[in-house]
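Margin note: ligand = iron/sulfur cluster.
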Amino acid sequence: MSYIKKPAARHPKLRVNSLGLTVRDYEGSMSTLCAGCGHDSVTAALVQAFFELEVEPHRLAKLSGIGCSSKTPAYFVSEAHGFNSVHGRMPSVAAGANAAHRDLLYVGISGDGDSLSIGLGQFCHAIRRNVNMLYLLENNGVYGLTKGQFSASADIGSTSKGGVANQQGPIDPVNTALSLGATFVARSFSGDKNQLVPILKAGLSHNGFAFVDVISPCVTFNDHQGSTKSYAHTRSHMHEVIETDFVPLKTEITTEYSEGSVQGITMHDGSVVKLHKVADEYDPTERRAVLDYLADVGSRGEIATGLLYLEESGADMHGFENTVDRPLVEIPFADLCPGSKGLEEVQKEWW
Amino acid sequence: MHPTDTRDPQYYHRVVDCQWACPAHTNVPEYIRLIADGKYTESYMLNRESNVFPGILGRTCDRPCEPACRRTRVEDEPVAICRLKRVAADLRGEIDHLLPKAAVEKNGKRIALIGAGPASLTVANDLIPLGYHCTIFEALPKPGGLMRTNIPSFRLPVEVLEEEMDMILNMGAEVHYNHRIDSLKELLDEGDFDAYFVGTGAPKGKELNIPGRTEGDANIHIGIEWLESIHFGHIDSVGEHVLVIGVGNTAMDCCRSSKRLGGKDIKVMARKSRPYFKASPWELEDAEDEEVEILVDHSPQCFVIEDGQLKGMIFDLVEWEENDKGRLVSTKHGETFIQADDVVLAIGQDNAFPWIERDIGIEFGEWDMPVVDRATFMTTREGVFVGGDAAWGPENIIWAVEHGHQAAISIHNYCQGVPVTDRPPYGMNLVSTKMGIHEWRYSNDYDPVLRTEMRYADLEKRLSDMKIEAELGFDVKETVREVERCLNCDIQTDFTTNLCIECDACIDVCPVTCLTITHNGDEDDLRQRLMAPAENIDQAIFASESLPQTGRIMVKDEDLCVHCGLCAERCPTAAWDMMQFDLLNPYAGHQSWPEKAITASTTSV
Ligand SMILES: Cc1cc2nc3c(=O)[nH]c(=O)nc-3n(C[C@H](O)[C@H](O)[C@H](O)COP(=O)(O)OP(=O)(O)OC[C@H]3O[C@@H](n4cnc5c(N)ncnc54)[C@H](O)[C@@H]3O)c2cc1C
Ligand SMILES: Cc1ncc(C[n+]2csc(CCOP(=O)(O)OP(=O)(O)O)c2C)c(N)n1
Ligand code: SF4
Ligand code: SF4
Ligand code: SF4
Ligand SMILES: [Mg+2]
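Resulting structure:
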């Protein structure tokens, strides 16, 4: 952490978006994480994505559990709504908030400990419900906040700072999400904003659960030679499967790709996600093929990155529940609550 | 782009905008920090090393540093660099024991200094401690040159002037007052001296030869002569209506002096409009505060004399327009008479060297000026040097001082048999300021306060007496506030390529978006590809060597960095460090540091 506040001085030529905001207006308070933490870079990528998507701060809700990663909502968009919940319970808080107010933009921030250990059940059910939110798992292979114990994402053979090798098999969050039917699955790296920012923008525009596993090195406990979640290891083993280009609504598509290598997917808000395939045979809309491909890549010890799977047509939680379009919070209490008479009528269905 | 050589002292020097802009390269940020620490004496002495006259310059300097100040790039107004210098001079303690002393053993070399202005005095300041015998010839009864005769005492009290000149003269300069040199040839022929320095200034005020000039002579004055007469008490009053012709700094001193000599209706007459005024903005402000009127687009046509008495002047009313060659041309659209009892001409100064013969090996060139080498200050006759306003026309005190330093180096070389072109190198010290994880040896917190306003002596009181200093100077409270505005541009962000793990932390935290990691390219291309384009080409961009993990490079646009140190604070590997840069200015006799010296360790202390 730093003792001084970030100086108010800013570059005089910063771009201003249609809301009259600069990228700096999407910042939060000074980070208290260790210097060099990958999570801070993920925060910076989010700030960039919000700025570029011209998100109105008061339309954003930030939710998190416990962990260094879960602390980061304090470091972006100070004006947004926020809820720092208990360890592993962010998904249900998000589901509840989304049920009550479907018009907000939900961003959940979690860690590998928060999502794959204590919160694994919650994580799985949020995927099943297809809660409309961006779910970021800032993955460093350790419990950073409690001083570096292996987490459930640690690879076999990856060592602790003290040199002890992990022996238990990892839970791969991307695999888990795909298996459970997630509709948007991506993996990226905190040290590669060119890749991460468009993925975040696509995820924020997705109608449903947008899952992004971000390798986000822990400089203090897991950035050493024996680690498979270090900056150096991630860089030398990254295998980019898809390059993502996010084209907002109303923007002309100018980038040119060779025929057949690009798949354009229109999101429910009208924006287009262009997926530029680095590997020819890869189809980001074929769940089983994606799982196979990733298994191959994984077996070579490589880390597949990019927007790996996308399905825009499915129903989200509100679709399943067939709820009204209007956010429940905006419906007057009298209309929302049927009263004891009305309730009796409803209950008669089961008599 | 090739990796930047930050071990060349001039790279970091350029980042310290004020020091780079200061002709004498005064270490501004360090003197401001010393003031912040209450070390006024140390601050004064640090100033004195480069600019020799901190008390004088703290009031009168032309301040080329201020428009250059980095603060102007993140807000409107620069740090009050000059007024802080005065604080050091006003609040300093005893310094006698710290001042340079004449060498106990003389080196037998004798130097003639012609004119006792700031240029000559600086030469004496640098040479007497090295054992030289300096003899000054001054036409007037007192030393100081234009600093004394032309800068009025409401801007520069005589005590301040004399005290600082005495620090030099009391080292044992031999001074001959009322001794005008009328023939350089004679002086050279006498052969008493090993080297000669001409510091005679630009002593001739420009004339305005329009009808009525001779007839009205009794009430038409040449600005610089008139100010000199006021200084020596030969003039102590002026008529009620005064016209000052010209709108440079001399004009400002003339109009403000008129106010104090009893003038009521004082008008400064400008041929052009405001954007073209030569006077410094603060001098214009001060004059207008004292209820001087400034009239624009009035071009003098003639003096009006009735019965041998000056009555006023007729001016053409003009409009200015740029012609197709980009030159300003005027068209007249009327004329007007303006009443005047006295007219002061303040339209510029010229050099005049009637006393330098043209057959003594000193070549004269354009404008009938001696040909002087820009680096060595030597004329075409070996052993004769020129500096200050005498060299290339009117400048200011701080340039005269720098000329003096450079000429002293040359004179020393010349007398020691070293080629004058062998200039001693600049050096630098670079020391980490890290004290702890988030602690630095400087105040890195950015303070958004605006520039501190100067307080002035009560208007009526100050106009009643020429000797009352107009500016009151900063008190301690104002000083404490103003010092925090300095961004410590000398605390350099110093990068060690092989430590960087490309975590992006520095890039994410930088408040002014000046860091980027990207693939290399040529400079023009890189400047466009940064997090924010680097459009100010007067400021360097730093490029590292190839980074270990990806082979990309770290690029820093030096333009807007506020030296907050957050990049270094957020860097997990100390690839960025905040290093205090101390430029080692070469002076006569201090030629010992090796070229590109980094005399202190570059690691944390
Ligand atoms: C009205 C006015 C206001 C100014 N205000 C400022 C200001 O606020 N800040 C600033 O930085 N600058 C100011 N300047 C400019 C500044 O004073 C000069 O640039 C500076 O003094 C030049 O120094 P110098 O040593 O070259 O010569 P000078 O100061 O001109 O000194 C030359 C000396 O040589 C003597 N001399 C000349 N000929 C001979 C000879 N033949 N024999 C013997 N002695 C001789 C003269 O009497 C004089 O004492 C001002 C100038 C004027 C005219
Ligand atoms: C109910 C509960 N159990 C355990 C803890 C202790 N604890 C705090 S953070 C944490 C792990 C966080 O790991 P991760 O989600 O990976 O976050 P990181 O710090 O690595 O970003 C644990 C086990 C807790 N705070 N609450
Ligand atoms: S901010 Fe301070 S160090 Fe930087 S240019 Fe201004 S006075 Fe000099
Ligand atoms: S010191 Fe570092 S963080 Fe601060 S402005 Fe300069 S480059 Fe940016
Ligand atoms: S914070 Fe340090 S290690 Fe990280 S990118 Fe910047 S210089 Fe490199
Ligand atoms: Mg973790």
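Chain B has a mean pLDDT of 95.
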